[in-house]
Structures are given as structure tokens and as C-alpha cells.
Protein: Prenyltransferase alpha-alpha toroid domain-containing protein
Organism: Thermococcus kodakarensis
Amino acid sequence: MGSKLDEFARFVDVHKALEYVEKRRHEDGGYCFVSVLNDTNVNDTYYAVKMYDLLGLGVPEKEKTIEFLERAIQPQTAVVAIAMALEGLAILGAKDIAREHVGIVYTKYNPLEDKFAVGLGGSEEFGTATPLEATYWVVKAFKAIGQPISEKEREKIRAFVMRFRMRNGFGVKQPTTTMTYQALYTLYALGYHPPRSPHFRNCELCGDWGGFTEVPYSLPPYLEPTFYATRGLELQGETLTCPRRHIWFIRQLQNSNGGFRRSLELGISNFQNTYRALAVVDAMMRYL
């Protein structure tokens, strides 16, 4: 256990980050990034599970968290949250439970019926989820739980994703790092081999900054494009130019409570940012 934490401790205060997460676990097995609130939710619980997994640690009272995630899979739950719950269950070793609830996904997301945007609800990135974001999360969840995707479904999804192709990336009004990664991950996960995109490389900041931006040749860097661009370059078999500078950027984002914010400016910690910060550090450590 100590060795993995010791690796992280070379670069960030990982013990403080872990304490930040542990203090926000509630009796129902769920998590809430605002510790004083009992409003546990799928998003925070998913990222808590991801952090424990990333750090090589077991989730405390795992069975309670499995029960919490299973209870969250309801007809009124947004499709992104359902996908998070399914993937979280897979990480916790409950793929069989997750597969029992696959049917509810198809009531909201069914490519054979051209349902890419039914009851999207909340989003990770955009306030209201885009159909591309929902596609990314559903494909990722199905891969995690071992749910097969038929050839017809694969082709329907591929054609849908390609509607967001813009020049060297993917987006709605312009190519963005987040949507480019989500599109490329989806295509790779389905077994397709799209050409490499230069978008991620064009968003990398070295020099005085570190991190990545959402669109090329802009400032300032933010955590979410840094997370997605790092994974995008790895997906394409490319290396980062300045990993030490990116770690410097991540270090500046850790708040006094142990969690991480999204930018160099002042901001609150949350579980999403904290997981992404640790995931970027994990990727950078492979270069050092």
C-alpha cells in the first residue's frame, strides 16, 4: 500500500488528498464533496471509487458503496450518472450486479433507434450533457462491465461521433480538448482506428505555465483539458513534451483541505478535480 502512495507523495500531498476524500464518506456508502452535507451523489461516489482504485487502495465498507451505486440506477437518473454507477460497480468487483441494470440504459440511449439524447440531464462538463458526452460515458461503462456492443450498434455510434468532426478535432462550434478526447476514446473503444489528431499537442503549454488548454494557442490552462489531453496523447501513442512542468501546474492546484481546484486562480476543491489531478500525476510519473 505504502509504495504507491509514496510515489505520489514525491509530487503532491497525497495523504492530505486521501484524508479529504475519507472525511466525506457517509453512512449510506456514498460520498459528498461538501463534507457537512448528507446529499451524497453518484458523481462524488464514482470519483471516490476511482481515486481509491488509482491509489491501489480498497474502498472502505465496499459493500455499502456497491449498494449505494446500485440504488442510484433509476429511470429518473441521468444517463451519464447511470454510466458512472455501472463503471463504479465494475471497479468494485460487482460487474454481475451492473449487468443486471443494462436495460435501463437502453431506455435512454439506444443507437439502433437513433436515441443519443433522451433524458440526458446533468453533465460532467457542459451543464447539460451533450449526446457525444453521453456516448463516451455509455461506451466506457459498457467496456468496464463487459457488455457487448453489436456490429450494427458500433457502426451507428461511429457515424454519430463523426458528426462532431471539425478540422483536426471534434466539437460543436469549434474543436475542444474535452470533446476530441471523448470522440477518439469512443472510436478506439469500439475498435476503430481514427487518424491521429494534432489538437492535444497544439494545446500543450510548457515554459512558464504547464498544463493544457481547451482550444489551441490560448491561455490559461485548466485541469480538465490537462486531464483529457494527457489521456488523448497516450491514446495516440504520443509522449508529453514537458511532464515536470505539468506536475508543477498540478501542484499549484492543491488546496489547503487536500483537494484540488481546476485553475491557478482561487477555486474550491471537489472530487472530480481531485481525481483528475491525481490521474495526471500518475501519467506524468511514467516519464520521470
Observations:
- The two ends are 21 Å apart (CA to CA).
- The chain has one domain: 2-285.
- DSSP finds 14 helices and two strands in the chain.
